[in-house]
Design brief:
Layout lengths: L2 H22 L3 H35 L3 H66 L8 H42 L1 H12 L45 E4 L5 E4 L2 H11 L11 E2 L3 E2 L1 H11 L15 E3 L10 E4 L3 E6 L2 E5 L3 E5 L9 E6 L3
Antiparallel strand pairs: 1-2, 3-4, 5-10, 6-7, 6-10, 7-8, 8-9
Helix pairs in contact: 1-3, 1-4, 2-3, 3-4, 4-5, 6-7
Length: 369
Amino acid sequence: MTEQHTDQLVRHGLDTTNQFAQKLRHDPAAIGGARDAHYALQTSVGTTRDHASAQRVNLTSASSGSTTDRATATSQSLEKEVQDLLDESAEIEKAVAEAAETLHVGEIKNDQVRDQIIKEIAASMKALEAVKSIQPPESRGAASRDILMKLQTKISQLTGQAATFSEQTINELTAIGTRLGGEEQSTSASSSSSATKVGSSFNSNSGYSGGSDGGGGGGGGAVHKPRLPVAIPPQPGSGVAINLPGGKQVMAPNETAAKAVRAALSQLGVPYVWGGTARGVGLDCSGLVMTSYQDAGMQLPRTAAQQTVGAEVPSIDQLLPGDLVVWSGHVAMVIGDGQMVEAGDPVQISKIRTTNAGQSFIGFYRPTG
């Protein structure tokens, strides 16, 4: 790991949260002014409505006949229109308040992630400084690489959190706007939301013989992809060799991924057990992935759909050993040479695919970033 790579990691972490901060930037004074303006409008229009109502009552009590009836009906219609305007203004005022609170919460969450990234960077820089005193000197390179690899993983996880918070904030704001905008905006918002869903072409059946994810994954239907940073390409010469069954050698992006692949391959032939996490005894798909990365020193969530962590690999041709192929109820680990290992029945090696028994394909992910 070079000093240039260190700078790249730092910029990658902070730039991402800074970009989200720009998206969430707002003017509290302007929002407050908008709320105050609607309150003043409601007060003024409410006074007009009350005056019109009082005049209508006076007219009805002081006269009668068809002319009075027409005037009364006109007055009632006007009062209804005024009340509708008041209701709409109150709804807008409420929406402005909700939007302001949503932006404020999103901003706080993003700032918290950014602060945590800064702390992780500071701690790693301190650890790198301490490495300079390690003896013998030839051990320093490996120690530095380990520190930076852990920093890279942590930054990827934290920027993933920031991306999730940003998406949640935008979705909440969209929902507020849709509620105010009526049917036309609702259709537009629905179309926009569907852009984050995996296309139905990924949901066709395949010959996968294993069960669904015993950790709690579901079946088919559209699912939302988490917005994570794009995986950082490994530096030239920084890969770690793995010998696959059959003798072919492949290169994992880092030692953690290599260890996870080796751990997963050591379970070939282990029976499929729904909810299984007992290595050598019985495993389900997410149990295989979780325990293999656990053996490599990295803790992943329990279920398949939750194992979309680290960074997203944008295309199948960029997959590396240790990357994950994730569906709504299944997950497999890439081992290289166009193959992956998965808990079928038993744990087995298969060709990389994006279909699995009608389940929704979520994407490719690199837990180590």
